[in-house]
Amino acid sequence: MKLLRNIAACGLLVLGLGAAVAQEAAIRKNLAERLPSLPPIEEVSKAPMNGLYEIRVSGNEIFYTDAEGNFLIQGNLIDTKQRRNLTEERVDKLNAVAFDTLPLKDAFTIVRGNGKRKLAVFEDPNCGYCKRFERDMQKVSDVTVYMFLYPILSRDSAEKSRNIWCAKDQGKAWQDLMLRDQPVATASCDSSALARNIEFGKKYRITGTPTLIFADGTRVPGAISSQQLEKHLSDAKAP
């Protein structure tokens, strides 16, 4: 009898998996046919809300649909009982970058205090928000900052980044420019790290500066205050 029950359970499991595969196929087919401008669907999964399915496109863009793909919802799914933005949490998880995958050899470091905490930052020397962030950073101690030059904003961003990367004291050259508006002296060296940073950013969809990556993989786009930065550093655990 036990064997028969196990066989029956396995049969139900197979049927359930088959139905799920067929349902996903139907959602993909219907949405692709009805909304040809929708980017290719990369993942279909059940959403926390009954009857709702999550559609993931373009790496980290989330939509919701019903079981037949008759409706498409764009927006945030909120858990009112727990007061949580489930869509935001999901996107944060998708955006996370494992700290040990960062190409740290293509960054220079600025150490404050004991340097125990870790933070990676992608910044463009022509970024006004980055300058504001750097000023706020002066209030934060006990952190090692891995600075990735990420020249994406202006024509001369690459030139300024090269001069900083090739400077004798990269950290000083960077802070002289960002905090004191002192131009960086022309310098030359092997600056292929800058191109690798751009490629890394494309792979992980880093589209703006500054972009911050904490030790626990959390990614935060945009300039944040020193208070917010302290909170993220405290919450993040070293890899």
Spell out the blueprint of helices and strands.
Layout: H1 2-34, E1 41-46, E2 53-57, E3 61-65, E4 72-73, E5 78-79, E6 84-85, H2 86-95, E7 108-112, E8 117-123, H3 128-137, E9 143-149, H4 157-165, H5 170-180, H6 192-203, E10 211-214, E11 219-221, H7 226-235
Parallel strand pairs: 8-9
Antiparallel strand pairs: 1-2, 2-3, 3-4, 5-6, 7-9, 8-10, 10-11
Tell me what the structure shows:
By secondary structure, the protein is of the alpha+beta class. The protein folds into 2 domains: 2-95, Disulphide bond isomerase, DsbC/G, N-terminal (Nuclear Transport Factor 2, Chain: A), CATH 3.10.450.70; 99-235, Glutaredoxin (3-Layer(aba) Sandwich). 40% of the residues lie in helices and 20% in strands. The protein has 7 helices and 11 strands. It has helices spanning 2-34, 86-95, 128-137, 157-165, 170-180, 192-203, 226-235; strands spanning 41-46, 53-57, 61-65, 72-73, 78-79, 84-85, 108-112, 117-123, 143-149, 211-214, 219-221. The strands form 3 sheets. It has a 5-stranded mixed β-sheet with strand order 7-9-8-10-11, covered by helices on one side. β8 (117-123), α3 (128-137) and β9 form a beta-alpha-beta unit. The termini are far apart.
Structural class based on helices, strands and sheet pairing = alpha+beta
Task: Calculate the mean pLDDT score and round it.
Answer: 90
The coarse silhouette is elongated
- What's the CATH topology label of the largest domain? Glutaredoxin
Please identify which CATH superfamily of the largest domain we are dealing with. Glutaredoxin
- Total count of strands: 11
| DSSP helix fraction | 25-40%
Count helical runs: 7
Percentage beta strand: 15-25%
What is the count of distinct domains?
2
The biggest beta sheet reads: 5 strands, mixed
Main CATH class of the largest domain: Alpha Beta
Uncertain spans? none
